[in-house]
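G., before I forget:
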Amino acid sequence: MKEFAYRRATGVRDALALVAADPGARYLAGGTNLVDLMKVEVEAPTRLVDVRHLPLGGVGEAPDGGLVIGATTTNSDAAADPRVRRRFPALSQAILAGASGQLRNMATVGGNLLQRTRCAYFADPAAPCNKRVPGSGCPAVAREHHNHAVLGWSEQCVATHASDMAVALAAFDAVVRYESPGGAGEIPLAEFYLPVGRTPHLETALPPGALITAVALPGAAASPRSRYRKVRERASYAFATVSVAASLDVHDGAVRDVRIALGGVASKPWRARVAESALRGGPATAERFRAAAAEELSAARPLRDNGYKVTLARNLIAAVLSELV
Amino acid sequence: MPGVIGVVDHRNAPRLSPLAGTFFGPDGGLLMLQDGVVPYAGCPVALVVARTPEQAKAAADALPVTYDEQPHDTHFSAGHPAARPASTVFGEDANVGDVEAELARSAVVVDEWYRTPEEHCGAMELHSATAWWDGERLQAVDCNQGPFIVATGLATLFSLEPERVRVRAEHVGGGFGSKGLCGPQLVLAVMGATLFGRPVRVTMSRHQVFLMTPPRPATEQRVRIGAGADGSLRAIDHEAAFEVSPLASYVENCVEPTKTLYAAAAIRTRLTAVPLDILPPFSVRGPGLTPGSFALESAMDEVAERLGLDPLELRLRNEPAAGPVSGLPFSRRDLVACLREGARRFGWADRDHRPRTRREGRLLAGTGLAATAFSTGALPSSASITAEADGSFTVAVGASDIGTGARTALIAVAADALRVGTDRIRMRIADSDFGPAWAAGGSRGTASWSWAITDAAAKLRERLGDPERPVTVTADTTRVLGGLPPRERHAYSAIFAQVTADPATGEVRVRRLLGMFAVGRVVNPLLARSQAVGGMIMGLSMALHEEGVRDRASGRQVNADFAGYHIAAHADVPDVEADFVPDYEPDDPSGIKGVGEIGTVGTAAAIANAVWHATGVRQRTLPIRVDRVLEDDPR
């Protein structure tokens, strides 16, 4: 770990100013990912600006019947909130499917959105990695990629996004709110993560120096019939192989509304809009679920050793939707 | 840089003796920082000594190192052109009867390949050692599994007289094999202490532990078994290939169970070593037997399947009267008792042996079993007992307690042998100055140390009489052990597993594990049960999770941390039951065999067999990953 300066911000403006003044500065919230990466020197900030104690925590009601989750709300608190559990159960389930109890007690909602990929080449400074060192190459495409992306990747990077929470947020059309030196703003989660393209080191649409302040869940997306299911290499405490967040509204045997997002398959939570539109208005049957899932996955480009993820994602979408009928 | 005391590299490191090694022979992997060659990815190239660990790490990261690349090969396969017959340190290949003729006469023949990946010890305590020179004497506090053996190796390595080296390891946070030899932490700490004339502590990072402490080698095993229609085995042919390093000899003795477990008209075994540019592999959690039993006991299940026979019955029908290869009598063989009692408790009699017939919603359920034998027998050790003037006894033995509770067990053995309460025993262990002693390894620690303590106690009881003056006696078991009659001496187990599998997602969960063990006399039931349960969990972890993955270009382990190298988490561990059938070792004064590793051995095959029973698909490659179980069209 490289030596760094540490400051506890006294307010949002103070935090913005401290980070703006130092190009090597980073915000520190729970630190559950950042500090690990600092230990292996994948991250080497010159200054940490601690925002964990800023008054940005807690879950509040939104005028549209949705919820606003403050950026420094711990993952544990967000998952346990009765309104989250009632209106957005898939979000609570997704958070609880991630990490461990101890980590969820430390990790924040804002920090969770900004966690980095768990691609082993990214975490090993001895290896090339376009995300860590732009232009150095991506070993994963040709070498070890058993748990890498099958959708939306590029020759520059085939890493997956690690968050469970973000998958559910994608399904619920969440909006990320931030403050920045240039003023406040918000970004729909669907646009929050940038396409990999030729710039895998550029991960989010946040302006420079921005601080996430909250995540808003629209009331229109509330769905007590929603579910998150995660398949991984052991029963707990592992990142997703493939996960699905889905909600389903069935009326008279027909799909009135459906939301599907996939985790573990792309550099961002993958909203399955192809499958959704194939299903909307049609009969809610296992055959249709399976066909729609297959249609979504027809865009997949598996590598030598991760083709199983295509089968798994298809099966998992069909299984979760069937459980929601 | 701030705090830096110095750097050790191949230009200034103390010269090391190539004679130092292990049970298997000289180990070139110990010869660190001797030249500019990097024989495997992860090999240390320099040691930075500083005042604080942070200063040392920062300086090590700043150290400029340039590499030239040479051709290397880390890709293991049984058919590798460099494959050669393994060392015969564990005995000659078995060549009983005519395998081909017996296979030709068999009603059913199973001929399959089984594969296991590199696996890592993963002890929670990172490897750490502190070394310093005390005048002419080298002192070290290390974490290892056998201080006397490590001290002897260290003396050889640094060309010192053995009495000039003292190594202690009183408290060790797990070993699993990775602390069985003179570790890099100790060698490097001694180098630092020697060059800079001050105490030096070396603590490895988790990453370094993965890259620099030995794994279990990957194996590829071909098993052919032929059986008559009545289930009697006619032939067993077990060919096992495993990876090694050209730096050191090692044998992953996969065929040990094949040589002793079942009677057959013909038994043939072959062991093949494939040298690759990797860190020398070494013993990990039931070395040899654990991957070997996965192959043998999976193949046995396939024989039962093809015969339409209960896998339990198949095993009962092939009990040997004497060692099937050695011809030697068994000291005591209680496999049948383990199988029958385990089956009774597990409810095996109700099993429908057809696969893929039990559905619970989206899940498929199944059960499986495996049997095994684990060789036992005390190895030479010494112990001293001092009868103190206050009526207490100080026992000194070079034993090692790596978290098993060996210290507690030995206190009971000593109290028993001295016929006093445990409150009068002061147990001192894990100091090479206590004299020769076997290590916490091979499941032979408790048996070996207990025998020495028992002998010392017997001598002491003859000499007691003057309570005013402390009396010390020492016993060494080398001679008495050398006079033991040759026998087949083994512990036995039968493991039963119940699993569920989701064919749509490939998720396998173990719902229940039950192990019945014959391990000789049980010294401490609580500790022995804990050891057996822990072993079964390690077997579960092997079956479902553990897999060292190397980058195919660089040969470097890709998943060299606990985020990437998965071991079973709490949520993976089900209802685990372990118990013991009455047993004793007739030739051991305390009746002990050994409980150390046998829990691990049979578990992977029992789980793989249960997965077949659930899904109808054989899992011949470990771990049983999601992608290996997942079905394209799950019904």
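Chain A has a mean pLDDT of 97. The longest helix of chain A spans residues 308-324.

More on Monday.
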